[in-house]
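User: What would this chain look like folded?
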Amino acid sequence: MPTFTPFHRDLTFLAPLSETRAARLVRFLAEDEPSTVLDVGCGWAELLLRVLEAAPGARGLGLDLDEQSLAYARERAAARGLSERATFEARDACEVTGTFGAVTCIGASQIWATTQDDDRPMDYIAALTALRGLLPRGGRLVYGEGIWSAPPTPAATAPLAGRDDEFVAMGNLVQMAEANGLAVVAAQEADLDEWDAFESGFTAGHARWLAEHEPDHPDADEVRALTARQHTSYFDGYRGILGLAYLQLVAV
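Assistant: Here's the prediction, encoded as structure tokens.
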């Protein structure tokens, strides 16, 4: 299997998230000056590090199972003088106990799935219930998860789980949050510019690999096919249909 450059070379966040939206989320999480911040599925933890910079009295815990991303997160924390306040652990968020003043969970709801079937509908309620349990009353949560922006089509669902009920619409997600001890301060959705930037960054390593290797390299056909499948899945499939909701929530 070809080795590509890590995603963090081409993406600031491992999500369709612009600088403008990220700044808004950071302000929301930091403005109450939390003493502790948890980032579930933190990746290389750019969002967590920005929250710690905005809340200088806070300590942060980033959880992810990708050791390479965590190693880079530690490097970035050290470079920004945050090593003493930022801890990164490769462990399951289901094992976390206690409460945190602020929590962020973007694209990681599968952690609390009640079944390991990859083709299941998204278990938003299990995730929201678990996340609410990590917050004291008044604690803040940024919850980002996939939704349907438009009615799903066969072309959109085929490269995903292949089912129309994999995700829900924004309104349904808002109702789930409100029914699970969370008040909705703001509900927004990633726009197409954010999605296009994310998808471009996701496959940029493929283009770089092709530029660095001869066209007749033994792995070249595999890389070209991988890139073509991803482009077809997105541009001819779920672009504008699969969305990502960002909910700013307060525990009540």
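The two ends are 48 Å apart (CA to CA). If you want, I can go into more detail on any region.
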